[in-house]
Design a protein that fits this description.
- This protein is α/β, with parallel strands linked by helices.
- It has a domain of 117 residues: Rossmann fold (3-Layer(aba) Sandwich).
- The protein contains 6 helices and 9 strands.
- Strand 5 and strand 6 form a beta hairpin.
- Helix 4 runs antiparallel to helix 5.
- The chain starts with a strand and ends with a helix.
- The structure holds adenosine-5'-triphosphate.
- The site of adenosine-5'-triphosphate has 16 residues, from helix 1, helix 4 and helix 6.
- It comes from Arcobacter roscoffensis.
- InterPro entries: GK/Ca_channel_bsu, Guanylate_kin-like_dom, P-loop_NTPase.
Length: 176
């Protein structure tokens, strides 16, 4: 099978890691859920490699990563050697879609969305950031996403229903 890339993007708190956790449980035999390198500890829904800023810099300097970015004061990276010759699902910053489109032929981008009020509720319930930080995240304006193959995914339904839809979408893309 060819290398296929499925990028997951969307604002903080929209439910990316929650959807990925459900999908990983169901599809981990068939699909490569790529772990990110992050300079902060993972929370309960994530499966990331945790490293400090210094280790991150050394790896970056040695061209270990296909893509890196900074979000909310932490560094994120996707290792080149994490991409397998199958379907690869990767949660990334929207600003890095083109890194993957330059490197690979088959790249799909799934944009996860919910209305702003629901996003606020989810961030508040998650209790990872302060109220000030949550308001900052909500006020960030999002420009239109530039991606060659863009799919919009509405994550407004409950976790179970949305997870099912998300898993079906990944399965469908695997077969394309
Ligand atoms: N469909 C859903 N319905 C209700 N709550 C949800 C749904 N999906 C996720 N949540 C909840 O919303 C909160 C944020 O979800 P999650 O941490 O997965 O977001 P994220 O997009 O990965 O955020 P970040 O980019 O900051 O890591 C969590 O508390 C999660 O339980």
């Amino acid at each position: 099978m060819d290398t296929k890339i499925v990028l997951i993007v969307g604002p903080s708190g929209v439910g990316k890691d929650t959807l990925l956790k459900s999908a990983r449980k169901e599809l981990k035999g068939e699909v490569n859920f790529v772990r990110r390198y992050i300079t902060r500890k993972p929370d309960k829904n994530e499966k990331n490699y945790f490293l400090d800023d210094f280790a991150f810099e050394i790896l970056k300097h040695n061209s270990f990563f296909a893509s890196t970015w900074n979000a909310h004061g932490n560094y994120y990276g996707i290792a080149k050697n994490s991409i397998k010759n199958k379907v690869n699902v990767i949660s990334i910053s929207r600003s890095k879609i083109s890194d993957f489109e330059k490197l690979y032929d088959k790249v799909y981008t799934i944009n996860i969305t919910v209305p702003k009020e629901e996003l606020r509720n989810r961030l508040l319930l998650r209790k990872r950031e302060s109220i000030e930080e949550i308001e900052k995240r909500l006020n960030r304006s999002y420009e239109k996403i530039e991606a060659k193959k863009l799919i919009e995914f509405d994550n407004s339904k409950d976790i179970e229903e949305s997870s099912k839809e998300f898993i079906n979408l990944i399965k469908k893309l695997s077969l394309e």
